[in-house]
Known about the structure:
By secondary structure, the chain is mostly beta strands. About 0% of the residues lie in helices and about 55% in strands.
Amino acid sequence: MPLNQQIIMGFDFITGKMVSEMDINGNVTSYEYDGFGNLVKTTLPTGKIINTSYSWVTNNNPENSCYSITTSSTGSSTNITYYDFLGRELRNVNTGFEGEQIIVDKQYYPNGNLKNESLPYKTGNPVWTTYEYDKNNRIDLVISPTCSLEYTYSGKTITVTDCKGESKSKTMNSIGDISSASDFGGNIQYYYHSSGQIRKIKFP
């Protein structure tokens, strides 16, 4: 960030919640919360207001859902996300201006890993993308309706191979940043300052 530019955040003295944020251009976003500390209103620098509400689910629809969070604003679609009692997202419903709903569902393994995620759909039976994991709990295989992706791990290098046999890989450094990335176009190298910010990117 250039010198003399700063982001200023304001916090509630009692709750510790952030109540305002000013960016480097002086634009201010403000936040309001309910008595439980849940975000209920966001006012953007443009004046646009995003309202957020929280509800318990009483009809078990979708199955195993416990509560939902609804966000809405003037001139935008309404979004409802349903969660189970562990806080995992089960369903996202986006309702357009004419009442048309676009749904995305998620299902989980007993250990909490994502198992299935549907493609966006309106009605009927969803089409799924399925995730499989290795013994170290890392993604091993992603099976989608159009293609599959296979993941292999070697040290700090992850390689992804698609159904056409084309591969791309990335290698991480000791602190988890990408040090190199390779695909059919060649290899890209990343160099960092001691602060962790990117210093140089070397292309093929």
